[in-house]
Write a structure and sequence with these properties.
Helices cover 33% and strands 22% of the residues. The chain has eleven helices and 15 strands. The strands form three sheets. Strands 2, 3, 4, 5, 6 and 9 form a six-stranded antiparallel beta sheet that branches. A five-stranded antiparallel beta sheet has the order 1-11-10-7-8. The protein is elongated, with a radius of gyration of 33 Å. 39% of the residues are buried. Bound molecules: manganese (II) ion. The site of manganese (II) ion (MN) has 6 residues, from helix 5.
Length: 394
């Protein structure tokens, strides 16, 4: 028997902005010693189905004696199966951060997504889990500072979730409990709204776990409540002889009124949190961006610059930040062209290669010569064009 029992309490709230609550949690630690937070996502009502499905499957698997990792993988299967068999639920997914008490006094935290587990020990708050999020990966890769990540517009993009792929990678963090340890499981609706120092302050100040969870939720709402917010607080309490006797008589050591899984709530949230497939999409966009760049650099047009017909490399007006550059200035005065030719080049006449653009310029020159009486001085050939640096400003 574990030298500890878990005293847990959770609070969830829709927040100040969303129409429905897609978060869900388990705070009835009881004989299973299981606690969890799940943050669902998906259009319409799919998000709340995802989080509730994951927690139901998790609880059932743990009750059947499976390990935490096994149970989380089973929850992944359950969400994916439901998603694939109901068109309106397609693409749904959920985070899952769960804690399970072992007989050796260890609490194992299993984790997928960007919900978090924290430990408060001797007044110090430590983050246990690493987010599976795009900004977290950018921070790890040195591309963002933690401060930039906090306010990054893409900070809600997660890179791992349950219900997306048949395989899911579960991170596990074993905690060797000590008397007085307090663990917080929470959704990103808390951590994006309330700074760690303020979370630590509340967890240290309020002894009662239910009231502390409520204070955290209140703080998130006071800060704007931009997302659903959930906090589950778990206190590790040493088991005394009296407790052991009482536990034998009354299996559930938690409040009797808390249901094993919170009932689903209505939701209207239609903002689809971007899932694992966002990374391939970003890769495709990057390829597209450079393809556009290649196109922009391998296209030519003939236009007018400083009162002379000019060959440009690039796309008139630029394309996605790829600006055209002057490839060659000619001596041709646009005034010597026919009105139709002038109109053609005013907005830039496009060519797919330099030689085509050059051939066009040659035709313009030949046209001018053909229209010019023999007695006048012909347009000087290209070789007499002075260097660009010598061209007077227009
Ligand atoms: Mn959330």
């Amino acid at each position: 028997m574990s030298p500890f029992k878990l005293v847990a309490a959770g609070v969830t709230d829709v927040g100040r902005v969303r129409d429905g609550n897609e978060d869900d949690f388990i705070d009835q630690a009881d004989r299973l010693g299981l606690v969890a937070v799940a943050d669902g996502m998906g259009g319409h009502r799919a998000g709340e189905v995802a989080s509730a499905t994951a927690l139901e499957a998790l609880r059932a698997a743990v009750a059947n004696g499976r390990s935490l990792r096994d149970a989380i993988e089973g929850a992944n299967d359950a969400v994916l199966e439901k998603s694939e068999s109901h068109r309106e639920l397609h693409g749904m997914g959920t985070t899952l951060t769960a804690g399970m008490l072992g007989s050796d006094g260890q609490l194992v935290v299993g984790h997928v997504g960007d919900s978090r587990a924290y430990l408060v020990r001797d007044g110090e708050l430590t983050q246990i889990t690493n987010d599976h999020s795009l900004v977290e990966e950018l921070v790890r890769g040195g591309e963002l500072t933690p401060e930039q990540a906090e306010v990054h517009p893409r900070r809600s993009i997660i890179t791992r979730a349950l219900g997306i792929d048949p395989q899911v990678e579960v991170d596990e963090y074993p905690i060797d409990l000590r008397p007085g340890d307090r663990i917080l499981l929470c959704s990103d609706g808390l951590t994006t709204m309330v700074r760690p120092d303020d979370i630590a302050g509340i967890l240290n100040r309020e002894h009662d776990p239910k009231r502390a969870a409520q204070l955290l939720v209140d703080a998130a709402n006071e800060a704007g409540g931009e997302d659903n917010v959930t906090a589950v607080i778990i206190d590790a309490v040493e088991v005394t002889h009296d407790d052991a006797t009482a536990a034998a008589a009354v299996p559930d050591d938690d409040t009797a009124d808390a249901p094993p899984v919170k009932p689903r709530r209505r939701t209207g949230r239609t903002v689809l949190r971007v899932l694992v497939w966002v990374l391939p999409i970003l890769a495709v966009l990057a390829v597209a961006f450079f393809a556009v760049g290649w196109y922009a650099r391998n296209t030519y047009y003939v236009g007018i610059d400083r009162g002379r017909v000019t060959v440009f490399q690039g796309v008139e007006g630029g394309l996605l930040g790829w600006d055209p550059t002057i490839d060659r200035r000619t001596t041709i005065d646009p005034g010597a062209l026919t009105p139709a030719q002038r109109e053609d080049i005013t907005d830039g006449k496009k060519f797919s290669s330099r030689s085509e653009a050059d051939a066009y310029v040659t035709r313009l020159r030949q046209g001018i010569e053909a229209r010019t009486p023999a007695t006048t001085i012909p347009v000087p050939p290209e070789s007499t064009v002075p260097p660009i640096t010598a061209t007077p400003p227009s």
